[in-house]
Design goal:
The complex is a heterodimer of chains A (288) and B (155). Chain A has 7 helices and 16 strands. Chain A is an alpha/beta fold and 288 residues long. In chain A, helix 3 links the parallel strand 7 and strand 8. By secondary structure, chain B is α+β, with helices and mostly antiparallel strands. In chain B, helix 1 packs across helix 2. The termini of chain B are far apart. The chains are: A alpha/beta (288), B alpha+beta (155).
Amino acid sequence: MSDLARRPGDAAPPDSMIPAIHRVRRKRQETPDTWTLDLEPVDGDGQRTYAPGQFNMLYAFGVGEAPISISGDPTGTPGLLAHTVRAVGAVTRALCGLRRGDLLGVRGPFGNAWPIDQAAGHDVLLVAGGVGLAPLRSAFCRILGERSRFGRVSLLYGARSPRGLVFADDLRRWRARFDVEVEITVDHAVGPWRGHVGVVTQLLDYAPIEPEDCVALLCGPEVMMRYVGRELSRRGLPAERTYVSLERNMRCGVGLCGHCQLGGELICRDGPVYSLSRIEPLLRIREL
Amino acid sequence: MKGLEQLLAEHAFFAGMEPKDLALIAGCGANARFEAGDYLFREGEPADQFYLLRSGRVVVEVHDPARGTITVLSAGEGEVLGFSWLMPPYRWVFDARALELTRALVFDGACLRDKCEADARLGYDLLKRVTSVMMQRLEAASVQLLDVYGGAAAR
């Protein structure tokens, strides 16, 4: 199974450095510091297609740009771009502060995609942590839209606390389905939470895998992905079929500036989705 | 109705254990049932038991006057609970409460300790099994302490 990376030397889209002006059509609060923005192009000539796993550079005018994964349902309303943003810095705080009708710039989509077509015919295990569910939401929605193409489908999701769960309405809807398994855990809970408490690796006991017929897609903090990857390996899943989405300091989005370089990889262009077999050796080098 | 030895043999925690050892351990055990809201044990009380959960769900909690009751772990079917019976001072350090009707095999900690003292091979086997679970819990607790979701950048 091969990665879907755009290879070095591939031409970047000609208008990739020019932001397209978009308007915030809807804004939903996911957690106390995380918002989902639905964006529409002002001139009606915005992005038409994207692949689950890709990201855009969102430009808060006068503040700066930040790489934000596309979190929308690719089978949903055409022309609408959903991004889920956690306010952790100046740019993301400005993006989260946008209101309905406000304008922002969008460049992209950039990067490669989750290997969904390669996963067809196999079991698919998605493991997300925190706001890492955002890039996997697109993949999960597409898998649900083409459910019969896949074997057993499981989503395991971990967050810091019940208040830190993003896409709560989606999670309720997905948990009500009979054709997917959705398990949620939180690191600690106060109050009436009745679900799992513990780290996301502990949920793997609730979604047993058949190592020879499973593809795993992981997204979340790097430490979390490392632990999950190690546990999946212990359960026999080859690193070639374990995919992670990496986050680095993406700036240009097209592999020109080098800010997101990790060894020989330019994450914005060659990633952000990698098989563990390809990227894990680089993640172990502390100096990178 | 299945006997205690058979229930032990079917539990993942005791997988592969010699039948004669299972018989020794079964001699310290009994079936137990907890209704939703029942406490299996409470912080500070003598830790005389070791639990294998057969069904249901239990939460491990700690009470903080400022934050209220905080759940730090949940356990369900097939999992084990309670290690304070192994080491002095044999006192529970957390509360454990059943969230729903829970069935468990409960073992007398002092009885188990006596049998392990008398039979070092059995003791070593049991300790390896307990240590394996403790390692998993320790690793999980370390990841929880890292608070990885708190520091993750937005994407």
